[in-house]
């Protein structure tokens, strides 16, 4: 069963790229006392994620933040090095790029998927959620191949 609106984000430690390399960051640090838009992609540098999903949030970052959002975060079952490099390549300075290297957070949310058929192992499903002070207020999970329910435009409509 996956996380739903009204549920609290589970405790986890993720990774982000800092000036000195990968840095741990907890879900408490990310979500407590803040309004956060979190979106997940199956993999950094993959076509749909690089051409559509992340760019939509980069282009709309100011508009999203103007609606009272403190942080926009992107997460993937990739390491912090990959997420940092992908963020730089996409000019995603306004987006907190998070690595869920082992997929533990995706599993804790009930939103992992088996992508071994594509040679990618266990990954996160594509989703976007709005989280207010650690509680999910909106969740949109896309079917395989889709980017409708988790797009920046859809998130904007929910804010």
From TrEMBL:
The keyword Phosphoprotein does not apply. Keywords: Antioxidant, Oxidoreductase, Peroxidase, Redox-active center. It catalyses: a hydroperoxide + 2 glutathione = an alcohol + glutathione disulfide + H2O. The active site is at residue 49. GO terms for biological process: cell redox homeostasis; cellular response to oxidative stress; hydrogen peroxide catabolic process. Signal peptide: none annotated. Its EC number is 1.11.1.27. GO terms for cellular component: cytoplasm. SUPFAM superfamilies: Thioredoxin-like. Transmembrane segments: none annotated. The keyword Oxidoreductase applies. Residues 1-25 are annotated as: Disordered. Thiol-specific peroxidase that catalyzes the reduction of hydrogen peroxide and organic hydroperoxides to water and alcohols, respectively. Plays a role in cell protection against oxidative stress by detoxifying peroxides. Belongs to the peroxiredoxin family. Prx5 subfamily. This is Glutathione-dependent peroxiredoxin. It comes from Spongiibacter pelagi.
């Amino acid at each position: 069963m996956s996380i739903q609106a009204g549920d609290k984000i589970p405790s986890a430690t993720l990774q982000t790229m800092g000036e000195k390399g990968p840095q741990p960051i907890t879900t408490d640090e990310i979500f407590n006392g803040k309004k956060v838009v979190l979106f997940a992609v199956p993999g950094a540098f993959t076509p749909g994620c690089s051409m559509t999903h992340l760019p939509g949030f980069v282009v709309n970052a100011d508009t999203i933040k103007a609606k009272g959002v403190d942080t926009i975060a992107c997460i993937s079952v990739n390491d912090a090095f990959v997420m940092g490099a992908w963020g730089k390549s996409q000019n995603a300075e306004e987006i907190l790029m998070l690595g869920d290297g082992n997929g533990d957070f995706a599993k804790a949310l009930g939103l992992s998927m088996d992508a071994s058929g594509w040679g990618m192992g266990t990954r996160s499903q594509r989703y976007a959620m709005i989280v207010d002070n650690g509680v999910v207020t909106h969740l949109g999970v896309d079917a395989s191949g889709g980017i409708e329910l988790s797009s920046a435009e859809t998130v904007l409509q929910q804010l």
